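WARN no homologs supplied; continuing
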Amino acid sequence: MKDGTLVVFGASGLVGGALCERLFFTGEWRFVPVIRSSGGAARLARLMPAETFVFADLLDPNSFRRLLGEESIVVNCARGGDADMQRGLLNLISECRRRRVRKFIHISSVAVFGDDPPPGSEQPGCTEFRLLTEYGRIKRWQDEQVLKLHRQGIPSYILCPGNISGPYSSWSAGFASRLLSHALPLVDGGQYPVNAVHVDNLVEALLAAAAAASGAGQRYFVNEPDPVTWRQYVEDLCRILDIPPRTLPVSREDVLRFMRTPAPTAGLTEHLRILLSGEFRNAVSMLPVMAWLNRKAAATFESLPRHWRAAIRRKMSRPVTIARQATGPDLSESWVRVQVRRTFHSPASLAAGLGWRPVLSYEEGLRLTGEWLRFIGLHGAGSGSVLS
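OK structure emitted
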């Protein structure tokens, strides 16, 4: 057994659960699975007795303070809301610094480079971004806090996956459901990389970081060794699910133009026009209190000077301009927007710096993912083919 204890925060999630399963079956490390509630722990509960789990809330440092010591290797797989990802992370980092833990390993995301990663983002140390989402902004902030912890003397590693596939993956289940529903818009012929990694290969990266004697203070991409295009991924997964690969052509520039266009919002006049419309007032007048307010508003309006009333009526009677909906595929769909990313986030530095090697090939990972998808009922009507 290796020296040190892995303290896994977020053990009931996809990545934390897969890591704890691996640790349970191999016995290569001592480990502590830390969960927030028992609701998501069914996967591990079939393997481990209840007393194995530690319940802790990152928003309450007292709940996990005693878990940490100089032998602890903290693995942060926790997600949650904005408060968990910000204040919760600060609490965890503060206690790790106070307890002088051996190492800190954090799961980040390629979302730190935005929805349209700029040139240079093929390198993990890139600081640029384009079309940054709120989730990406928070993950960038988290990375900064982890690097600050490293500079304060706690060796820290940042692992940066893209889409995480495999059994229990909501991404895999969601994409399979989408392929089963109707034709998928394929951006520029599906020529850009999926940047999807099987969860077992991500677990292998976590263990490589835990065992590493050097290489801290950096971000590492976790991905397939070679790029896989969206077209290839769609065709392979559809073959496993026994469905035809139904796609529609979409231009990357059209999708980017849509993503860069602010969503239209109704102005004050439009909102007032709705409030003053007869249909709205008749509907809300079915409630007694609203009927009284409606009568008071009408009486107040009628008490205004005639020229004021006329001016208000003219203003409210102007037609509302509504932007015409474009025909064609829905460009707002997340499965379309994610395809505009052209950067392949190579795991070469992970392999060279930490000695990582994937435990599953692309074909093996997709086959296992497909078996799980078929098990939960996400497949076509065929007999079921798999990649050889």
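The longest strand covers residues 30-35.
OK
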